[in-house]
């Protein structure tokens, strides 16, 4: 398997994950944190970061329902925070349709490979593959 090359979009996903993770840790809305960061001049250098965060916030209920439906034996609160938020980004990308589901899954798997537990890549891959299959049927 080839090493993951960090593209501008890959970096934007990681930055979006940082915002989602930090907002959750602080108990505030990711949209509010993003607005605060932008207001303080910490504008993400890739507009894709903003699109991801705003998209995840806008579709939060639907995204969490899909994750919950396909994360067998795992509740959202029981998942590691990194996995939960990477799944949210991956599901949003699958729903958004701007990139192929396979790309969204691969990018999410790469993020958790770098940042989470040894079991996380196969878990995230499995959940997102099931979500993508379900979304494709609709």
UniProtKB/TrEMBL annotation:
Claim: DNA damage is one of the keywords in the record: no
GO biological process, one term: DNA-templated transcription termination
InterPro entries linked: NusB-like_sf, NusB_fam, NusB_RsmB_TIM44
CC per GO annotation: cytosol
GO MF annotation list: RNA binding
Gene3D superfamilies reported for this sequence: NusB-like
Keyword terms, alphabetized: RNA-binding, Transcription, Transcription antitermination, Transcription regulation
The protein, known as: Transcription antitermination protein NusB
Organism for this UniProt entry: Nocardioides turkmenicus
């Amino acid at each position: 398997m080839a090493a993951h090359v960090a593209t501008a979009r890959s970096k934007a996903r990681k930055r979006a994950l940082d915002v989602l993770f930090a907002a959750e840790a602080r108990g505030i809305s990711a949209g509010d944190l993003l607005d605060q960061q932008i207001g303080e001049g910490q504008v993400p250098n890739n507009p894709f970061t903003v699109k991801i965060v705003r998209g995840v916030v806008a579709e939060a209920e639907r995204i969490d329902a899909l994750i919950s439906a396909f994360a067998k034996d795992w509740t959202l609160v029981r998942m590691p925070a990194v996995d939960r938020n990477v799944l949210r980004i991956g599901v949003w990308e699958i729903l958004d349709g701007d990139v192929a589901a396979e790309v969204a899954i691969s990018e999410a798997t790469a993020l958790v490979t770098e940042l989470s537990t040894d079991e996380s890549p196969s878990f995230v891959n499995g959940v997102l593959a099931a979500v993508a299959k379900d979304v494709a049927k609709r």
